[in-house]
Amino acid sequence: DRTVHVSLQAIEAIHLDWVGGAPLPAAAGLKIAPEHARKFDLEPKQVTAALVGLKNRVAVFNVQRFVANYEAEPLLAVLPGVALDELWTAVGLGERALMAMSGLVALVSLASLVAVVLAGLNERRRELAVLRAVGAGPRHVLALLAAEGALVTGLGALLGAAGAAAAVVLAGPWVQQRFGIALQATAPTLEQWGLFVAVLLAGMLASLVPGLRAYRLSLADGLSPKV
Length: 227
Known about the structure:
This protein is mainly alpha-helical and about 230 residues long. It is built from seven helices and two strands; from the N terminus they run H-E-E-H-H-H-H-H-H. A hairpin with a 2-residue loop joins strand 1 and strand 2. Helix 3 packs parallel to helix 6. The longest helix is centred in the middle third of the chain and has 42 residues.
């Protein structure tokens, strides 16, 4: 972990111009310059948290029970490892929910792709017939439509990734200043590349539905379509 260790007096100096847990706006003219901070009494009046390390790990639960039952002051002992596990469990639940929503969006997009290709198939019957006339076999037509679906899906995925990266770059400073969360645009991980390939293959498979219909179109039906 990367940590910055400062004194309690420094924490007091940082929060001199804070009210109600939030810093005062600079426009109000109430900001305290760093060089003027030493003029104030920086001795802390209270400490809200302390990190305690034990040499004997077996005594962890005994110390936790002692702190929880301390009558002179209402205290709470928290095990950082357990608390972090609970936090990541909660975050993982939200992450899985977002993944499920992304899957639903992908399914709707693939269904829209099939509908659009099917709708435009009747308009392209002469085009497909010309391809058949110059020697393209039914399998070539099927492969052509599958490649078209993969191209549309790949371009959509790339545009989505570019839009997400642009949003992180543009909104990152505001989010960090507002919520203290650092957002960074990083290179795709192996898992993300795997999802990209899966979406690409799904687009190709979705294009097989109109491709099978084009596969069955005969040359005569393409040259003289029914109106």
